[in-house]
Write a structure and sequence with these properties.
Blueprint (H helix, E strand, L loop, with lengths): L2 E5 L4 E6 L4 H10 L6 E7 L3 H12 L3 E4 L12 E6 L7 E2 L1 H4 L9 H8 L1 E5 L12 H9 L3 E5 L2 E5 L8 E3 L5 H11 L5 E5 L5 H12 L3 E3 L5 E5 L7 E4 L4 H14 L1 E6 L7 H9 L3 E4 L3 E6 L8 E3 L11 H8 L5 E5 L8 H7 L4 E5 L2 E5 L8 E3 L3 H13 L3 E5 L2 H6 L3 H6 L4 E5 L3
Helix pairs in contact: 1-2, 1-7, 4-6, 5-6, 6-7, 8-10, 8-12, 10-12, 11-12
The protein binds uridine-diphosphate-N-acetylglucosamine.
C-alpha cells in the first residue's frame, strides 16, 4: 500500500495546474447513459474514482475510449473520454461496485429514464456520516417510478416512462439533484425541481445535458425547470475546473507561505472560501490564466466558519481549513452543518500537536506556534489532504498512510506540490 512522505517547512512557490472537477466528471460520465450517441468529455481528471466509474458503466454495456497522448504538457491537460451507450445490456448496478463509490448510485435516474427500469445497490454506510438516499427515491417516485427495496437493492420501474412533476426537496442534496435532473430530461412533460442544489458542478452537468438536446432552464438557481424530450443526442463537453482542488492548494499556500499561481482556477466557483483565505491573511488576485495566492510574512489570522451548501463555504474544504488554522495566531471556530461525522481528521491533526476541541458539530481550533511531523492515517478523501497541509507546515518528517483515499480525488498531488518546492514523495511498498 502506498504512503506519502513529507518533510515540512518549505514555502510553496511556482505554478499549480488545476485539474477537471471530480464531482462534475462523475455525473457527466453517468449522463452518457441517457443517449445512444457518443458523449465526449474533455479535461477529465485521471483519478481512481473516474476509473472505477468507467468500470461500472462498462458493466451496463457502455463502450469507453480514452484518447492517447497528445503533444504539449499532456500530464496536465486532462484526458478526453468518449462514451457510447448504444445498447444498455444490463440495468443492474451491483453491490460490489456501488459500495466502493457512492456517486455510482446516481446511475439510477438515467437508467430508469431511458430503460424504464433499474436495479441499483444501496450505497451503504460511509465514514463521514449515514448519507441516506431518501431524497433521491422521493424525487424519482414523484416522476412516477415504482420503487421497492429488495435484498439491499433499489428496484425501480416506470413501465410507461417517467412523467414530469413538481419536486420540492426538503433539504439541499447535490446527489439527489443530479439524479432527478438527469431523469427528468427524458420524462414526459415539465418537471420543476425546487430547493435544488446550486453547486457549480450541477450547472456544468445541466449545460452538458442542454448540449445533448435537453431543455433545462434556471441553471445556477435553486429552481430548475425541465421540459422533457423523447431522445438526447451526443455532445462534446469540457469538465469545469476543480474548485475543491483549487481551495486545497490555496489553503496550502496560505499555511506554508509563498506565492503560487493556480492555473485554470476560477474564483467565481469558490468565492466564499477565497473570502475566508483572505481573512486568514493571504493575498488573492486574478491573473490572466488563473488565481494567484500569496502570503509573505505575517501570521495566519483565525476565522469563524460554518459549512453550507453552495454558495456557502464547502464541507469538502472543512478539513483543509482546520489544517490551515492549526497554526493560526488565535482561536478559530469551525462548524460542520452538512455531514454529522466529518471530523475524523481531528485526531490525526492532533498527532502533529494541533489543539482542537470538538463539541457536537463544532470544532474549536486554538492555534499553536508549530506542528511537528508524525505518522498519520488518511481516513477519507478530504480529511487526508488536510493531513498533507499539516505535514507541509510541520517541523520534520510525516508519513501519511492509506493514501488510496487521496488517489480517489487528487490528481498528481505529489508532483504538483514538489514542483513548487515541497519535499514530498510517494513511497511504494513491495
Ligand atoms: C456531494 C459531493 C461531496 C460533497 C457533498 C456536499 C459528489 C460526487 N460528492 O455528495 O463531495 O461533500 O455533495 O456538498 O459530488 N442527504 C439525505 N438524504 C438523501 C441525500 C442526502 O438526508 O437522499 C443528506 C446527506 O446525508 C447530507 C446532506 O444531505 O447530510 C448533503 O448530502 P448530498 O449533497 O446529497 O451529498 P452527496 O451528493 O452524497
Amino acid at each position: 500500500m502506498d504512503r506519502i512522505r513529507i518533510v515540512g517547512g518549505n514555502k510553496l512557490n511556482g505554478q499549480i495546474p488545476i485539474s477537471g472537477a471530480k464531482n462534475a466528471a462523475l455525473p457527466l460520465m453517468i449522463a452518457s447513459l441517457l443517449t445512444p450517441d457518443r458523449l465526449t468529455l474533455k479535461n477529465v481528471p485521471n483519478l481512481a474514482d473516474v476509473n472505477l466509474l468507467a468500470r461500472i458503466l462498462r458493466n451496463h454495456g457502455l463502450d469507453h475510449q480514452v484518447d492517447g497522448k497528445r503533444p504539449g504538457p499532456a500530464a496536465h491537460i486532462g484526458e478526453t473520454y468518449h462514451f457510447d451507450a448504444r445498447d444498455i445490456v444490463d440495468t443492474t448496478a451491483p453491490y460490489e461496485l456501488v459500495s466502493r463509490m457512492r456517486a455510482s448510485f446516481w446511475v439510477l435516474g438515467p437508467l430508469l429514464a431511458r430503460m424504464h427500469q433499474a436495479r441499483v445497490s444501496l450505497p451503504g454506510g460511509c465514514a463521514i456520516g449515514t448519507r441516506p438516499v431518501d431524497l433521491h427515491l422521493m424525487g424519482l417516485k414523484r416522476l412516477g417510478a415504482e420503487i421497492d427495496i429488495d435484498a439491499g437493492y433499489v428496484v425501480a420501474k416506470a413501465p410507461g416512462g417517467l412523467i414530469g412533476n413538481r419536486i420540492t426537496f426538503p433539504k439541499v442534496s447535490v446527489g439527489a439533484t443530479h439524479n432527478v435532473l438527469m431523469a427528468a430530461t427524458l420524462a414526459k412533460g415539465e418537471t420543476v425541481i425546487e430547493n435544488a442544489a446550486r453547486e457549480p458542478e450541477i450547472g456544468d452537468v445541466a449545460d452538458c445535458l442542454n448540449k445533448m438536446g435537453a431543455r433545462i432552464e434556471g441553471i445556477g438557481s435553486s429552481t430548475l425547470h425541465v421540459q422533457g424530450v423523447d431522445r438526447l443526442e451526443g455532445a462534446v463537453h469540457s469538465v469545469l475546473p476543480d474548485r475543491i482542488e483549487t481551495g486545497t492548494f490555496a489553503m496550502a499556500v496560505a499555511a506554508t507561505g509563498g506565492d503560487v499561481e493556480l492555473v485554470g482556477a476560477r474564483r467565481d466557483l469558490l468565492a466564499a472560501a477565497f473570502d475566508v483565505i483572505e481573512q486568514a491573511g493571504a493575498e488573492v488576485s486574478n491573473t490572466a490564466t488563473g488565481i494567484r495566492v500569496r502570503r509573505n510574512g505575517g501570521g495566519i489570522q483565525p476565522v469563524s466558519v460554518e459549512t453550507q451548501p453552495f454558495p456557502g463555504f464547502p464541507t469538502d474544504l472543512q478539513a483543509q481549513l482546520m489544517g490551515l488554522m492549526a497554526t493560526a495566531d488565535g482561536t478559530s471556530v469551525i462548524r460542520e452543518t452538512i455531514f454529522e461525522n466529518r471530523f475524523m481528521h481531528v485526531q490525526e491533526l492532533a498527532r502533529f500537536g494541533a489543539d482542537i476541541q470538538l463539541n457536537g458539530d463544532t470544532a474549536t481550533v486554538r492555534g499553536v506556534k508549530e506542528l511537528r511531523g508524525a505518522p498519520v492515517m488518511a481516513t477519507d478523501l478530504r480529511a487526508s489532504v488536510s493531513l498533507a497541509i499539516g505535514a507541509l507546515v510541520a517541523d520534520g518528517e510525516t508519513m501519511i498512510n492509506r493514501v488510496y483515499h487521496l488517489d480517489r480525488g487528487f490528481e498528481k498531488l505529489e508532483e504538483k506540490l514538489s514542483n513548487c518546492g515541497a519535499e514530498i514523495e510517494r513511497v511504494s511498498d513491495e
